[in-house]
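ping. complex inputs:
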Amino acid sequence: MTKNTYRSGPDNDGRYGDFGGRFVSETLMPLILDLEKAYVASKDDPAFKAEFDNLLAEYVGRPSPLYFAERLTEHLNGAKIYFKREELNHTGAHKINNCIGQILLARRMGKSRIIAETGAGQHGVATATVCARFGMKCVVYMGEKDIERQKPNVFRMKLLGAEVVPVTCGSESLKDAMNEAMRDWVANVEDTFYIIGTAAGPHPYPELVRDFQCVIGHETREQILEREGRLPDSLVACVGGGSNAIGLFHPFLDDDIDMYGVEAAGYGIDTDKHAASLTGGKPGVLHGNRTYLLMDDDGQIEEAHSISAGLDYPGIGPEHSWLHETGRVKYVPITDSQALEAFQLCTEYEGIIPALESAHAIAYVIELAPTLPKDHIMVMNLSGRGDKDIFTVATALGAEI
Amino acid sequence: MAVNRIEQKFADLKKEDRSALVTFTTAGDPDYDTALDILKGLPTAGADIIELGMPFSDPMADGPAIQAASIRALKAGMTAAKTLQMVQEFRGLDQTTPIILMGYYNPIYIYGVDRFLDDALDAGVDGLIIVDLPPEEDAELAIPAGQAGMGCIHLATPTTDEDRLAHILKNATGFVYYVSIAGITGTREPDLAPVKAAVDMIRRQTDLPVAIGFGIKTPENVYNFAKIADAVVVGSAIVNIIEVNIDQEGLAKPELKSRVLDFVGTLSLRKGKV
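pong. complex structure:
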């Protein structure tokens, strides 16, 4: 990597500094190398890009608006706050951007069966959606605990024709769903393409997921220039695996802009119930990459906790680990209760029900914006809508639906 | 040098004109003392080489049997350090049976690669099979292990072609482990013909012994696959016997050890049949 840019990674070994890599079983390696070739070839194929762009425009509904959150800005009485409205995408979150890209790659590689893991169900729904659109068989692995707390999304996936396989091992959440998806993959390498939902996993996944999500940042740049005539001063996004954050941040990494990745601190990072792998973890190897992970002294991966199923993962994408170590992006923790408050504030002041994932980013905006001058422009990625979370929120607030 | 114990074993077996039975059990399953007891009994029961699983919280390449074994061992307090201690205790009794640790990279990475290699060699470990380290990541462990004299067993699989195999063999020592099915441990049985073709391909490229594993469950399987390879690995079928011989509190029933060792006896290749 050259020294004067943060945007040239990964290197030929799939590394961002010391992070990333290809830590997978040998059975998968030839397929991973094929995927890399197919991805590199697709980048030079104008027809691939044209089809991707067309689907994003006509099927996903892009560009998503950049919205001035006027009442929230007034209420916080500090920085000028914009929302990048990824929750208005088809299927209700940024996840679909990546799924469109990956299913086009799957088709290019001649694969007919798609597998995916999901936590909150947003990636599962997005995957089931593109599978319906492209007529491919779809199997989604989902932890039993997540199936319970994300029932609407489970039903959506089934309506879309996907088979939802409950995962009962381990903590029954996202990490275990990913283990089970990898077990399926290794047994079905011939016909199966694994659509990973976040910018993590073995190289080239972190790179290609990032690239497909960078449409968020590219649009934001154009929209804010048109609106304000200059670039923003800061960017805020929640990070679980970190795909919505890297999609927003990456096109701006070489600009003089402060960036904040918001991790899920669950009950607090001083407890053992959180999902803040950068704030509370250390580098290790899991799910194909070296990255920051929550683990014990023996290297056993620990269960994460977050009120948000989409952030309930004990790791993070490798590029975030690198951006953390280089200090380019600041990663901050937000607890369950802070996220819940932000969820309500956003709903009441802006008439937008955010996903609990995105509510973590809003909570940090609430913390940060009042400390900044009024000419400070802040863009927050409103990565998903919160309809799926109303049952969780009702339970947390002691309300009955 | 640890590699020597592996070489010596295969040389001895060559003189006997037979293949090796490799048994897999998980260190600390269902508890340290029972697992050590089993370990100590394995060579007499029929194991020529011992694969000892290092438990990991997220065993992505393993089927339900070995996943469950890992969880039992971790619940009973097993760690990487205790796995090495177990090998050391075993070596007090047995100086000749090679011990190969099989597992995932993270516990070794967290232990510290150099320190782990030193301690493992001191304990009497002869080789490592780390499932999530393909040759692309040889610099992580395979190369330092080779320099330290620790065997670094590489995996070839049904997705391996000749070009890929050359790449896999570059830093391979000890033996080559052929994963006989595309899949996870303890699931479907492999077919003989494609496995034989793959073993022949490996033998055209290396003089290292070839072991076959994944999906091999019965004495008949072992007998048949032993004819085409230098070693045959049985794992999940043994681990299943542990699973059915623990009580509801997760404690070993009195007959557990003898049940496991009796089963290993039925798999033994020491009868001059092969």
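The mean pLDDT of chain A is 96.
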